[in-house]
């Protein structure tokens, strides 16, 4: 029971605390919602209801106690309240009376106030109407002004008028109809202006494209004039240097600088494009116009790059490249002055496309060209194009690289043309000494190529030591040098001299030298022509120094640099070799002709019965021919070659005489035949001495004379006519008198030698003691030679 009592007390205490919390919350005016929600969630709504009833009972008790405490005061307050009610009724009556009086007084005044308010409203409306009318009038005036601008084609002022209406007046137009009409017309107006501008820019594009060729030609012509002035200045400078007055510091080089403004040279109007671009900026579509302009200019450029198919390239290349030059000159001006209409990247793309196409066209055209002149003309114009556009900042390196790549093609054609010219020159030349009748001929044919052998002006008519072929060849080579330098000038290569020298060597070696050798080896020339060719080659070899100096001068390098030994032409050595070939051919011609005259096996009776009183018939022709050859050589050939020709001819005669004795056609010979050949030999020796001294060769060549070349034949004849031929086997005597004779040759010849002549009385008529002793000595020699061999 105690436990139950305790639990009951605890429950009661818990309920009392909960009632206290509930009562406090109600007193404080707090929200009972959470308490109610918690009671329902815990499933005890009855307990909450009981607590509320308990709180209500407590409050009723408190109210009853409060009323009991203040009962008297409450009665007094009610009495006072009833007194106040009476006063309020009296005050209400007074207020109604005063209000009636006030209404009677204020009715007239209210009418006046209403009239005043109405007047103020009318004034406000009139003012607004005036302001609205003024706005409308201003807008309509601007619209009228806009119409005037449009009628006059003044699109920029018209557009500014539209912008003014749109920004400052449109939102303030009170007339909705007018406002809507203007709002609808503004886009139409802008579109109209844009179309008109597009029409104008299209007209300008057509005009500027038609003017591009003239613009390009003018600019390229200005570059050509500037180049010519530079060349003239360099030429004056070179002449001043060559005069070599007092060294490098003693001559003055003047540099004339002619400043020509671009606008004075290239007159074209970009105002329309500036205006149209600015209008598009005002329209708010600048990028649209930039794209339109760039795309149309690219289409024009691509069309120009296609070129003309109705004309050959060699006839239309100037127009083709001038058109492109004009296009990019205009674009450069647009880039610099049009305020962003064309971007640098766009122009670079445009230029790269054009360069690639031009390089392709050049490579294709150059590969099909068969004329060096045409290729040079195209190259020169393209070089001018590159120099012109380089001044505007364009990268023209690929163009010059394309020109340099065609260098081999150009020189191949140039060499081909020069080959034809040189072959014609050599084929048409008579190879006779050139005769000059006037000093002008001497200057143009000798002095201009430094071919003179003396600084003294000769008397006229002057017989030159060379034929007309030499100055003609020099002119052709000089023209080749000029053409080569012209092609290599103003290209990507800085120093063109080495290249010119390389191709000059190629011309002289592969073309000129081959043509000379072909002429020499042809066999259709005589001895005098061979002599003249040899002499001509000597002068051509001398002219090589002139060629190198001329090339250096045209290339703009000091001539002293070209005169260095290591820079000499290889062709000099090759021509010297060809000259030696000409000398050999000359000797072969002479020897061949001598063989015709000295057919000894046929012209001599080797077993003649009678002793001849003079020489054989052939020897006179030989002497006459030798005299002609040596006289001609004296006029044409230098000393050393004259000497070589004489030595070779006399050596050949000597060998021919010895070979005649060794010939198989000569079975035997007698002393009379030997004595006849001895007479021939004496005549030749006399002639040899006379020519050797008369030509002045004896003063220069003291070691071996013309007579010395006949020594083998002389020693053989002396041996055959000797009274004691067996002395040949004596070493001392042989070394002294027969040192040129060969044992085997002597053995063969002695075997054919018969002392007596053939015939019935031959042995009887020649029989004497001297002959018998010589015969015995000869027999002894034959026997000893047999034993020796």
Automatic annotation (TrEMBL):
Q: Which residues form the Exocyst complex component EXOC6/Sec15 N-terminal domain?
A: 51-220
The domain of life is: Eukaryota
Task: Report the InterPro entries cross-referenced here.
Answer: EXOC6/Sec15, EXOC6/Sec15_C, EXOC6/Sec15_C_dom1, EXOC6_Sec15_N, EXOC6PINT-1/Sec15/Tip20_C_dom2
The GO cellular component terms are: cytosol; exocyst; membrane
Q: Where is the composition biased (Basic and acidic residues)?
A: 227-241
Q: Per the UniProt entry, what are the Gene Ontology biological process annotations, in alphabetical order?
A: acceptance of pollen; Golgi to plasma membrane transport; intracellular protein transport; pollen germination; pollen tube growth; vesicle tethering involved in exocytosis
Where it sits in the cell: the answer is: Cytoplasm, Cytosol
Which chain positions lie within coiled-coil regions? none
Chief localization: cytoplasm
Fetch the PANTHER family from UniProt: EXOCYST COMPLEX COMPONENT 6, SEC15
Write out the similarity annotation: Belongs to the SEC15 family.
* Role this protein plays: Component of the exocyst complex involved in the docking of exocytic vesicles with fusion sites on the plasma membrane during regulated or polarized secretion. Involved in polarized cell growth and organ morphogenesis. During cytokinesis, involved in cell plate initiation, cell plate maturation and formation of new primary cell wall.
The name of this protein is: Exocyst complex component
Organism of provenance? Punica granatum
